[in-house]
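step 3/5: co-fold with S-adenosylmethionine
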Amino acid sequence: MPNRIIDTTISFMRKNFEKIRYNFDEIPQVSIKEPYGIYINVPFCYQLCDFCPFYKEIYSKSIVEKYLDAIINEISKSTIHGTPSWIYYGGGTPNVLTIEQLEQIVDALKSKITFENMGIEALPSLLTKEYIADLKRIGFSKLSVGVETFQSNVLESVGRTNKNYEDLRELLQYAQSLGLFTNVDMLIGLENQTIPGFLKDIKFLCEINPSQVTIYPYMAIRGLVSNSKMQNAEQFSTIEKSFSILRENGYVRRGPWTFTNHNDLYDSSRDELVEDYIGFGPAAFSGYGDYRMVNPPVGLYLHYWSPENENINPEALISKNDPESIEWRRLARMIGDLEINSQYEFSKSVKFVINVLRITGFIRNNKLTKKGLLLAHHLTKSVVENLPFPLQNPAVINNYETYSKLLSLYPMISANSSSLQSDLIAREL
Ligand SMILES: C[S@@+](CC[C@H](N)C(=O)[O-])C[C@H]1O[C@@H](n2cnc3c(N)ncnc32)[C@H](O)[C@@H]1O
Ligand code: SF4
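step 4/5: write tokens
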């Protein structure tokens, strides 16, 4: 029975998202209004991890330089103003950028807005104390690192290197001593991962004591990465076992996968479900006014946004908001927060689903129950796996032929291995 209710709720939501379609078209002239957030996409990585479905390209020094000119131009032409509620740099791997390069983007933002809440996702193997001190100096207040696991055989089998436990402890404690909020991403469901090994990782983490621990179940977005060999139920029960360890060490639950020992939160995807936000950079998502938009990948993005191409009108994948899908996003966000806001006037169909969840014991006194938590796990995972990501999904683009012709005219020119090698040496990795 609980599974039937969960499956039905998810299938209602999925049907709603499946209706969303995009057109590749000129970006509409709409101003963003406060409150809003800003997302800076840095879609470059030195290494590609087998499990990662996010859009990214192999790092190339020359392309990153062009990217910087373009994103600064895009920011300068935008309608941002006032004080955004949050700014997150994600990717990809934002810390492939040097501090000077990051500072150029920060300066472009500072010339238009004021802000205090600015976070960055970083690959720990590239982090040093100097880099962390510089992040603080140029205005970052939050640092998130993707650790996933400390088990070296698992990291090896997914094509990833990492800092060892002691180095990470030193770096994160240093970041915290500077006043930075720290988050560590962990991932359950990877190749060769064992549950006892993962729980040992969580105990290690408690000793490091970051401000937040986020434990993702493995997500296979639209078949871009192979499915996990670990069943959903096993991933979710491992997250629950991890929570028992985290709770004993002073962490409280803030969502199905988020645990903090702090009042603040690092959660770059939560607000995107319902709040207005503007994304800069290749493949960045935006959602404001009546629209949701996705920038094209690097090659075409540079064509539109390079300062020398002043006369070209930039285009993006654009979808007009459908009122019903806004309601479903709002419900997904509340379920992700483990609490339903009873003051909010939902549409009839969403209200009906909430009532069913109340009658069947998933929601009590507007809070998700233990059973409700299982719904939160499944539904949050399903939302991420099923939101239509148009860059990877031609079927959701109405004028795909026009778009793909342009893509082939402006392809991404990937770095060859020798220039990549010299870039790596240049960064003294
Ligand atoms: C996109 S990465 C960005 C930061 C940096 N590149 C890194 O890997 O540490 C952010 C996080 O996404 C999560 N992630 C990547 N692939 C995932 C997947 N298939 N399922 C769930 N989470 C995933 C990982 O936990 C990772 O730390
Ligand atoms: S997990 Fe991070 S480092 Fe690995 S490919 Fe994805 S974005 Fe790049």
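step 5/5: annotate
Residues 2-18 form the longest helix (17 residues).
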